[in-house]
Specification:
- The chain is α/β, with parallel strands linked by helices and 481 residues long.
- It folds into 2 domains: 272 residues, Aldehyde Dehydrogenase, Chain A, domain 1 (3-Layer(aba) Sandwich), CATH 3.40.605.10; 193 residues, Aldehyde Dehydrogenase, Chain A, domain 2 (3-Layer(aba) Sandwich), CATH 3.40.309.
- Helix content is 40%, strand content 22%.
- The chain is built from 15 helices and 23 strands.
- The strands form 6 sheets. It has a 7-stranded mixed β-sheet, with helices on both faces. Strands 10-9-8-11-12-22 form a 6-stranded mixed β-sheet, with helices on both faces.
- The chain starts with a strand and ends with a strand.
- The chain binds NADPH dihydro-nicotinamide-adenine-dinucleotide phosphate.
- The site of NADPH dihydro-nicotinamide-adenine-dinucleotide phosphate has 33 residues, from helix 7 and helix 8.
- NADPH dihydro-nicotinamide-adenine-dinucleotide phosphate binds next to helix 7 and helix 8.
């Protein structure tokens, strides 16, 4: 059975403790590879390697950093098929989705920051003829990057690329549930000629590797994407050490559908924003509010199309949904469906595990689930489920739906469907979220600020925001007379 290895100081190495964790294929429920069960000792080695590489990498001309990163991007593209298959096997997502979204986006992340760094400039502030200020922006040192399992390579590279483009060295930890493409990335970085120690990847559990990164005194910056509870724990440890923190956390995104929307577009995209990646995208719209006059029509079309979505073998191109990521996560999602029923909800479709045949019989499949009849403030509508489960509810006025939309602790993304331009702009200003999509979903321009408000996070990724985060500004003031 394949044993993954850590990537430390430019080499693939076994964990110091020589312990391994089983890695499951969610589509079959079977162990198919082993992951290093690393600990503090491996994080220390990785941090030493990153520290040693930093003096040289931080002054390597940005054109050279860019050249190497473009090579990594090219290699990701060249290995598209292999990486897409690996992502699907590790995560359970349809291969077609990994081929169309996850892997191309990972290549784009490297490409984008390889070129962004060439255009990154700092400010100067003239005080008329008295003085001149200019801002130096230097890399911070060793950056700790911790990422989740839902979009494994996509989110891993979204952190690593800006960190190394701006001259930092990195100690990174992918989710131990989906480590395979991060492992393959380490091979590609070696092939691309990334100098040793610039990127170090330590595999293992959050409470061991993640926590060792968070509390390491030589790592002054943490970029984390994951659940709100874990984010709070990281902040608790890192804040008293005055570390720079970027936290991209959970969501419970509202989808507001007005009667004047383009019905077909709203319906088609809502199916996607509800069930893509088995609903395991932090940006999925999980609370769907529909204006009363079109509620019955929308509901009946939405339910009938959701029922028609095939759930099964992720490698089969007709499968719209693959498996959810793990047995534990499947059980969590099913327990939320049970909670919804206890809270008085009616399951209109799905609501159960989907049993498959043959080699997929032990896989973790859940039918797309639509629930109605729940108040906006019940637990089902307030807590993140992170699976193929949405609620639908009617509303009568803009004021009413705004109250529902803004009622959770989260504020990551909102989706609005209306052809009324004035209303669209008005709501965009009033919705409590870091991102508002109007008449679309998941349309991403990598230059835009990405992140949430309230318990959905602190800070922004994307574009120059990330380059600002991964550099430390220093103002220099020169008196002119
Ligand atoms: P977790 O918070 O459980 O884990 C995220 C990462 O943190 C994993 O690598 C995990 O390791 C690690 N970790 C766990 N405990 C600690 C700790 N004490 N110290 C440091 N690191 C730790 O999230 P999930 O992997 O379950 O991902 C799903 C969550 O991510 C959802 O809430 C989702 O909304 C959110 N998310 C947010 C996004 C955003 O951009 N805002 C985008 C995508 C997802 P391990 O796997 O071993 O537990």
């Amino acid at each position: 059975m394949q044993k993954l290895q850590n990537y430390i100081n430019g080499e693939l190495v076994a964990p110091v403790g020589e312990q391994y964790i089983d890695n499951y294929n969610p589509a079959t429920g079977k162990v198919y590879s082993l992951i290093p069960d690393s600990d503090e000792r491996d994080v220390n080695l990785a941090t030493e390697a990153a520290k040693a590489a930093f003096p040289k990498w931080s002054v390597t001309p940005k054109e050279e950093r860019s050249r190497i990163m473009l090579k990594v991007s090219e290699l990701i593209e060249k290995n598209l098929e292999r990486l897409a298959l690996a992502e699907s096997t590790d995560n359970g997502k349809p291969v077609a989705l990994a081929r169309m979204v996850d892997i191309p986006r990972a290549a784009s992340n490297f490409h984008f920051y390889a070129t962004a760094i060439l255009h990154f400039a700092s400010e100067s502030h003239a005080m008329e003829d008295t003085a001149l200020n200019y801002t130096l922006r230097s890399p911070v040192g060793v950056a700790g990057c911790i990422s989740p399992w839902n979009l494994p390579l996509y989110l891993f590279t979204w952190k690593i690329a800006p960190a190394i483009a701006s001259g930092n060295c990195v100690v990174a930890k992918p989710s131990e549930i989906t480590p395979m493409t991060a492992y393959l990335l380490s091979e590609l970085c070696m092939e691309a000629g990334l100098p040793k120690g610039v990127l170090n990847i330590v595999h293992g559990y959050g409470h061991k590797v993640g926590s060792a990164i968070t509390k390491h005194p030589a790592i002054p910056l943490i970029s984390f994407t994951g659940g709100t509870k874990t984010g709070a724990e990281i902040a608790r440890v890192a804040a008293p050490m005055f570390k720079k923190l970027s936290l991209e956390l959970g969501g419970k995104n509202p989808n507001l559908i007005f009667a004047d929307c383009n019905f077909e577009n709203a319906l088609k995209t809502t199916l996607n924003s509800s069930f893509a990646n088995q609903g395991q995208i932090c940006l999925c719209g999980s609370r769907i509010f529909i204006e009363k006059s079109i509620y019955e029509k929308f509901k009946s079309e939405f339910v009938s199309r959701a029922k028609a979505m095939k759930v099964g073998n992720p490698a089969d191109s007709s499968s719209k949904l693959g498996a959810v990521v793990s047995k534990a996560h499947m059980e969590k999602i099913l327990s939320y469906i049970q909670l919804a029923e206890e809270e008085g909800g009616t399951v209109l479709c799905g609501g159960h595990q989907v049993k498959q045949e043959g080699e997929f019989a032990e896989g973790y499949y859940i039918a797309p689930t639509i629930i109605e009849g729940l108040p906006h403030d019940c637990r089902t509508n307030q807590e993140e489920i992170f699976g193929p489960v949405v609620t639908i509810a009617p509303f009568e006025s803009e004021e009413e739906v705004l109250k529902y939309a803004n009622s959770t602790q989260y504020g990551l993304a909102s989706i609005v469907w209306t052809e009324n331009l004035t209303r669209a702009h008005r709501l965009a200003g009033l919705l409590h979220s870091g991102i508002v999509w109007i008449n679309c979903w998941l349309l991403r321009d990598l230059r835009t600020p990405f992140g949430g408000v309230k318990n959905s996070g602190v800070g922004r990724e994307g574009g120059f925001e990330a380059l600002h985060f991964f550099t430390e500004p220093k103002n220099v003031c020169i008196k002119l007379k």
